[in-house]
Write a structure and sequence with these properties.
seven-stranded mixed beta sheet; binds adenosine-5'-triphosphate; four-stranded antiparallel beta sheet; Ribosomal Protein S5, domain 2; 2 domains
């Protein structure tokens, strides 16, 4: 096999709680992750001469060792003793620096692709051990679906699939640093923590309505204050029929959950016409790796 293509799926956080800051500077989190149909594509080719070359359709992304596909490929060939050179083509469709784990998912897809290409047969847990060295979200991006993510993101448990729905994404034209958000998160007795247990129960009951009423992201307490555009988008999505709307990860992307696809399409058209909310507006659905919900 000289060429392999793997899809790299985006994720949203249906729930995001931060439990504590750890001595090593990381935070212990408790998150409910959901992958989306929205995806990038990573194509890997063997090449004759040594070294890794990356090409991407986004001119502003690094193509050197700062790109997560490069990092993932370098880690894989080094740990598996592979001598070939590699040419990696990255087609980006997931908004960048958006809270949608685009880079982490590209890294995960690269590991999966190389594991196939070289028939190294590494089981998921071994790929996840490699993946966590590249980023806390990479272990989840290797498994996908609906999952509980704990620790720094590396302790993963499969959850019952999120019920079918349509999801609207709007990324405001602002950049929000993940480091800034975590540094400015105040955790004390009066912090309002999302009710992750109720969300898990709603998932078990396949109850989209209760799920959306309990969804929450503690990081919004930082970003909504500093970037009012985030609440403007959330409010507008609800006004346009979303069951709920929430910021994903450390932002700034906001997603709205729609039970009715026609309403979601109307909301999409509204945001496409009113570009002051953000120029990146995407309609998608949850992605389930096994499609076991149908
Ligand atoms: P997360 O939700 O995991 O915090 P994110 O959506 O906020 O991820 P990414 O899109 O992964 O953020 O990108 C964060 C930064 O990483 C960007 O500023 C970009 O320069 C760099 N980067 C490196 N490789 C990639 C890649 N393959 N795709 C996107 N960004 C990348």
């Amino acid at each position: 096999m000289n060429t392999v293509t793997v899809k790299a799926y985006a994720k949203i956080n249906l729930g995001l709680d931060v439990l504590r800051k750890r001595a090593d500077g990381y935070h212990d989190v408790c998150m409910i992750m959901q992958s989306l149909e929205l995806h990038d594509k990573v194509t890997i080719h063997k090449k004759k001469d040594e070294g890794i070359v990356v090409r991407t359709n986004l001119s502003y992304l690094p193509c050197n060792q700062d790109n997560l596909v490069y990092k993932a490929a370098a880690l894989f060939i080094q740990t598996q003793g592979i001598k070939d050179g590699l040419f990696l083509e990255l087609e980006k469709y997931i908004p960048v620096a958006a809270g949608l784990a685009g880079g982490s998912s590209d890294a995960a897809a690269t590991l999966i692709g190389l594991n196939q290409m070289y028939q190294t047969g590494l089981p998921l847990v071994e790929l996840q051990k490699l993946g966590v060295k590249l980023g806390a979200d990479v272990p989840y991006c290797l498994m996908l679906g609906t999952a509980l993510s704990e620790g720094i993101g590396e302790v993963l448990t499969t959850l019952p699939s999120m019920p079918a729905c349509t999801i609207l994404l709007v990324k405001p034209d602002i950049s929000v640093s993940t480091k800034y958000v975590y540094e400015n998160l105040k955790l004390n007795e009066s912090s309002l923590h999302p009710d992750i247990d109720s969300m898990k129960k709603a998932l078990s009951n396949r109850d989209l309505y209760t799920l959306t009423k309990t969804m929450d992201n503690i990081l919004q307490s930082v970003t909504v204050k500093d970037y009012p555009i985030i609440s403007d988008i959330k409010d507008k999505m609800k006004e346009l029929g979303a069951l709920t709307s929430l910021m994903s990860g450390s932002g700034p992307t906001v997603f709205g959950i729609y039970q009715n696809r026609e309403l979601a399409k109307k909301a999409l058209n509204y945001f496409r016409k009113h570009r002051n909310y953000g120029k990146q507006v995407i309609l998608t659905t949850p992605y389930w790796p096994m499609q076991e919900h149908q």
